[in-house]
Amino acid sequence: MRFAHLSPLLLLAVAPMVACQAQAPDLFSFVDRIPQCGLSCILEQVPLSACGSLTNSTCICTDVDLHRATEKCVTERCTNALEGIEVARVEAEACQRPVRSRKSDLLVPLIIEVPAWFSVWLRLYSRYSIVHRFEADDWIMLVCVIMNTPFLILGQHIGISCFGVDIWTVDADDLTQCLKLFYIDESFYVICLSLAKLSILCFFLRIFPNRVFRIITYSVMIFIGMSTTVFVFLQIFQCSPIEYNWLGWKGTFGSFRCLNVNTLVYTAAGFSIAQDVIILVLPLPLLFGLNMSWRSKMGIVVMFSLGIFILITSCIRLQYIVHFARSTNPTWDYTDTLIWTGLEVSVSLLVTSLPAIRMLVNRVVPDVLGTLTSKYGFSFGSKKQASGDSTDLRSGKYSDATYRNSVSGLSSRPAVPESRFKLFRVGGKGQMNESELELGDKLKGDVQTEIGATPSSWRDAAADQDRHSSMESGIHVHTTTTVDSESGYVPQGRRPSQM
Question: Which cellular component appears as one GO term in the record (predicted)?
Fold first, then answer.
């Protein structure tokens, strides 16, 4: 990052300083602190302004036109940025301007950034605990969260040390160090944002097997990968020599060559927003075509549409980078840019991790409710029961002890939801795959298997005739399936069978 004509900064207003001197004679000591280039501008511009005299302190401190004229003069004559900053510092003291600080604003994003960082680790835990393996999108997010760690640490250090205040209140050595860290952090920003997008696309590839959709997705991934490589390269070598990015602000660096940083920043932001839109729209045809209830369908669409928050943060950040590389007071003007840059990356991590976290929640919540049910006798939700036999094997009708085995889930499940669009088809024939796991299994329940022995005299008036003759003796297996169904599908229970 570099600042064009940082020296000018400053400051317009040294003029005000002279004004204050008229009010308090002891303030004439400020004259000795004003660099010669700034003092000559003040002495020239004040008589030409509406203030007319160096003794009109109120006018000198508040006249906007005078400040602009003085700033332009300081920009042209003070080639050393340190001189311009000193002019600004003296002006602020002479006019008794309050010290501005937005340090507290820089801490607010931590409310999102910290949970977002933990959400990735929770996502990885969810994936490994449920499917016992990592896929490509999980590995990408692992790399992303590792790179996001120094990005967050450097960003917070830069903000606390240098940003959120006026540049003339920051020590020159501290400012140089912060600009160097800012330059390093820019690469982490571009890479983290792109990795999050690639992870989302790999997630799409994992749950949507349609050939046409996969070709489009791979094309978008190549587009993102190539554009990211180009922008990282341009960011690293935006100025030659590279040291100019953090040393050039002083105005005494020597010969250098730089790209148009504003054009680079705007182009990168535009590409990022375009990629967000593509990723947001890409899965919608498949999601709207899923063969399931509208309630379930809209729930899934909403989950996938959370990416719109990434788009929103990107657009908000865009309006704050208009002064990038142009500001004469960057440590103050870039505060919002710093805030929204961190939020953009964190929201990307959070949104990318939500589907996997949803899987974990869907698994944990029923377990918690089941524990409460067994402990306190509560009942949660309505249930449908499908069974081949209504006989209670625990009612004592069996003469021998009964063995009961309960497992969570269903012994048989319906086919994975399919898209009504022939172009995009989700899943295969009746198999439990990544699509059903990620989009959500709409059936919940318990399978209870009871095994027992029964005497030959056991009869059930409600049973079928063919079962009546085959179950007079021996060991019998009775399975009852209890399900909660969102789509109205109720699997058939098993008839008692003889072993």
Answer: extracellular region
**264 shares its domain with 391:** no
Show the domain range for 400. Answer: 384-498
Do 319 and 190 reside in the same domain of the chain?
yes
What pLDDT score does 358 carry? 82
Rounded to an integer, what distance in angstroms lies between the CA atom of residue 310 and that of residue 280? Answer: 10
Residue 368: the pLDDT is 57
Task: Reply yes or no on whether the pLDDT at 463 is more than 50.
Answer: no
Mean pLDDT of the 290-298 span? 71
Phi, psi of 454 (to 5 degrees): -135, 145
User: What is the DSSP secondary-structure string of 142-202?
Assistant: HHHHHHHHHHHHHHHHHHHHTTTS-GGGS-HHHHHHHHHHHHHHHHHHHHHHHHHHHHHHH
Q: Note the pTM of the prediction, 2 decimals.
A: 0.69
Strands (DSSP E) found in 245-397: 257-258, 384-387
Question: Which residue did the predictor score with more confidence, 441 or 193?
Answer: 193
Q: Which residues of 389-416 are buried (b: 16+ CB within 10 A; e: fewer)?
A: bebebeeeebeeebeeeeeeebeebbeb
* 72: nearest Cα among 42, 32, 34: 42
The reply to whether 112 and 229 lie within a common domain is yes
Q: What is the C-alpha separation between 368 and 375, in angstroms, rounded?
A: 11
d(CA 437, CA 317): 35
Tell me: the pLDDT tens digits for 219-268? 999 999 999 999 999 999 999 999 999 988 887 787 889 998 888 989 99
- Most confident region among 92-96, 370-374, 410-414, 479-483 by mean pLDDT: 92-96
As for how many domains the chain has, the answer is 3
How many other C-beta atoms lie within 10 A of the C-beta of residue 20?
20
Number of Cα atoms under 13 Å in the Cβ half of residue 247:
11
- Contact 127/138 with Cβ under 8 angstroms? yes
Other CB atoms within 10 A of residue 205 CB: 17
- CA 29, distance to chain mean position in Å, is 52
DSSP letter at 32?
G
Cα–Cα distance, 474 to 457 (Å, whole number): 11
In the chain, what is the greatest distance between 2 CA atoms, to the nearest angstrom?
120
Give dist(CA 377, CA 370) in Å, integer.
Answer: 10
Does pLDDT of 92 surpass 70? yes
Q: Beta partners for 446? A: 408, 482
Q: Give the span between the Cα atoms of 60 and 54, in whole angstroms.
A: 8
pLDDT at 381: 46
In a domain, 377, yes or no: no
Judge whether residue 60 has pLDDT over 80.
Answer: no
